Every structure is written in structure tokens, then in C-alpha cells.
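Quick one: sequence plus nicotinamide-adenine-dinucleotide SMILES, need C-alpha cells.
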Amino acid sequence: MKRLNGKIALITGSSSGIGAASALRFAEEGAIVVGYDMNEPKAGDWVAATGLQPESFFIQGDVTDSAAVAAAVQQVKARFGRLDILLNSAGIAGAGSVHLVGPEDFDRTIAVNLKGTYLPCHHALPLMMEQRSGVILNLASIEGLEAQEFTASYNASKGAVVLLSKNMAIDYGRWGIRVNAICPGYIETPLTAQMEDPVLRAKVAGDSQLGRFGTPREVANVALFLASDEASYVSGAAMTVDGGTTAGKRLGIAEMFGLAPA
Ligand SMILES: NC(=O)c1ccc[n+]([C@@H]2O[C@H](COP(=O)([O-])OP(=O)(O)OC[C@H]3O[C@@H](n4cnc5c(N)ncnc54)[C@H](O)[C@@H]3O)[C@@H](O)[C@H]2O)c1
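Reply:
Sure thing.
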């Protein structure tokens, strides 16, 4: 028996990176996936997902457009009569310290990452409440748990996504709805490909206890677990998928005492 047999999943940011990998992982486990993204991909994980589950379909739209998001949820309801899983993965990076980030850039990061998470939840929750069941997964970040230099607007947006998720876990648990945030560390996707400097990339990889970036599929595997009934008592969590990056400091003491592997 597949882990998401017959489940209906709406995935924002489904065309690339973590959203696309999650669509494929969900489809492999029997879910019908509905993608929602500004761009429709011609290849890659999303296309592979639709190949596995032919009832899947794609809706082109912006997560900051309330009417378009509402119409997408209505389309899912009209086609399938229900929505079991909402995965919010659409997101953008936002670089700069506060005095450098202009108001328009700040608004855009908050609009896509925070409002673009709130809107699909806002429109999907009435359907899930009607069903008295549902799972919502929001892609936050380790940068929603710990601040990082030079990413003011991104930090602010992801910190808010963590608390929005916890708020919804409280408000909708009584309807049988589970809500969790997923907090990835650095994952190999087009989002982090913008970070081109090899010295910085090596430092970021070294900050993980596993010495590398993660893959989209490693995050998708966690999303799959949280979406499945195996996580039936998991709600209100902010689950890190970061190879131990936020576990704490490594000061080189093991190396000093010759305890590290050669
Ligand atoms: N990659 C990482 O290292 C990492 C780490 C922590 C958190 N995250 C978060 O995970 C999520 C997915 O990131 P990713 O690395 O897969 O990024 P990605 O750039 O590969 O994919 C993001 C997708 O979102 C879509 N998108 C962007 N703005 C949109 C909008 N306004 N409306 C609709 N779709 C829109 C893009 O078209 C793209 O397909 C994001 O929320 C990101 O902040 C990523």
C-alpha cells in the first residue's frame, strides 16, 4: 500500500526545487498532485510526477494573487471534491541588510514568502474544515529559526511563516487538520544556485555537520512523512532538514584530541 494512495495534494512552487521534488515524491506514493506556479516547466520532477499520476494537472498563477489562488482551490474542489494536502513551497530569496533593502523589495519578499503562504491556507482551510481533515505543510527555513547576516527580509518572512504555521496548528487541530513548518538548511536548487562564490558555498557546506548541501529529494522525503498518516500525531512542529546546521557550534575540539575521522 502506497503512503499517499488516492490523496489529493495542491503544491505551490511545484515547478522547481523542493516543490517539484515533493510533487514527484507524493506522486510516487500514490497522490494526485495539482501544481501551482508562475512558470510551467517542460521537464524535470514536475513533469515526471504528472507522468506517474495522469490525473494531475498544473495551474499557472501567482501566490500573491488572492483571486487566482481561490480559483485554484475551487478547481481542485470541482475536480476531486476534496483537498487532502496543501504544500506551500513557492518562495523567493531576499538579500540585503535593513538599510539596504528598499521598501519595494521588502514588500515583495514578504508578499511572496508570507502572504503567498497565508493565501493558499486561507482559501483551502474552509474545504479542509468541511472535510474535518487535511494536512498543511509550509516551507519556512532555518532562517526562520535563526537569523543570518544580510538576509533581513527573508529572515523576517520565514520567521513569520514558522509562527503562522504554529498558529494554524492551534486553531485548526480541532477540525482534524495538521499544520507543520519545514525548515530546510541549504539545499541544491535554483534558489541557492544564485550563491555562486565557491568560497561561500564551501563555508555553507562546512557549516552542516554532514559537510554538504542537501538535495530537494531529502526535503521531499520529510514532506512525504509529514503529509502521510505516519505523522498522524505531528502538528505545530518546525522541522529542520539541515544536516545538523542548527544543532550547535563545532569548535574543532574533536580534531585537537585526534578524535575526528582521518
Ligand atoms: N533551497 C534552499 O536552500 C531552501 C532553504 C530553506 C528554505 N527554502 C524554501 O523552500 C521553498 C522552495 O525553495 P526552492 O529552493 O525549491 O526554490 P526554487 O526557486 O527552486 O523554486 C521556487 C518555485 O516557486 C515559484 N514561485 C516564486 N514566486 C512565485 C509566485 N509569486 N507565485 C507562484 N510561484 C512562485 C518559482 O517559479 C519556482 O518554481 C521556498 O519557500 C524557499 O524559501 C529553500
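Residues 107 and 141 are 19 Å apart (CA to CA). The chain has one domain: 8-256.
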